Amino acid sequence: MKEENNNIQVRSSLWSNIFKAESDEQKILDLLRKFPAFADLKKRELKMIRKIVHVREYLPNEIIFYEGDPGVSMFIIESGKVEISHTFKSGIKQELALLFAGDFMGEFSAIVEGFRTATATALTNTRLLIIFRPDLLELINREPSLGVKILLGFSKIFVEKLRNLNRDYLNLYELLHIEKQIEK
User: Fold this and answer.
1) CA–CA gap between residue 40 and residue 70 (Å, rounded)
2) pTM tops 0.70, yes or no
3) What's the sign of the alpha-carbon dihedral 66, 67, 70, 72?
4) Is residue 11 part of a domain?
5) What Cα–Cα distance (Å) separates residue 41 from each residue in 65, 105, 134, 151?
6) What secondary structure, in 3-state letters, does 153-168 show?
7) pLDDT value at position 181?
8) H helices then E strands: how many in the chain?
9) Is 56 a domain residue?
10) What is the predicted pLDDT for the residue at 177?
11) Confidence grade of residue 182 (pLDDT, cut at 50, 70, 90)
12) Of 77, 82, 156, 169, which one is least surrounded by beta carbons within 10 A?
């Protein structure tokens, strides 16, 4: 044992919290279940996905990935706050989204190759679950019935994002059309 400022720091495994690792593991499984692509999976299947999850902590203002970087992984936010931004050719930086615990990003990169379309920055101490595409694709190939469920889950996410993008496009089109009518 070591004493620092009248606080005792325990160094013996005899006194460590043996249930903390178990509760962290359950927290990760719960977070994976909340990710839409994994929502319908059985506990056994979630545990298979858990085996390919990496956990990383980021400091405030640390870049998670830059716009233009190769996309090789997706992220689920366990804790913290992440800014998604785009820098225009003019140098103007635009915040696109603020993401919090339970949110996810980079999900396209979990399935298909491509480049990051925005920059992600941790705004606070942030803990992320990371799934790398090669690991996920290997799991999909090794467990085809699970793979079908995973790919169907990702398809639902992509369809919802496409619907939202289409709605935003139509709203912008309508706004521009109204402005043209006003100018006449």
Assistant:
1) 29
2) yes
3) positive
4) no
5) 29, 20, 20, 12
6) HHHHHHHHHHHHHHHH
7) 78
8) 4, 10
9) yes
10) 83
11) confident
12) 169
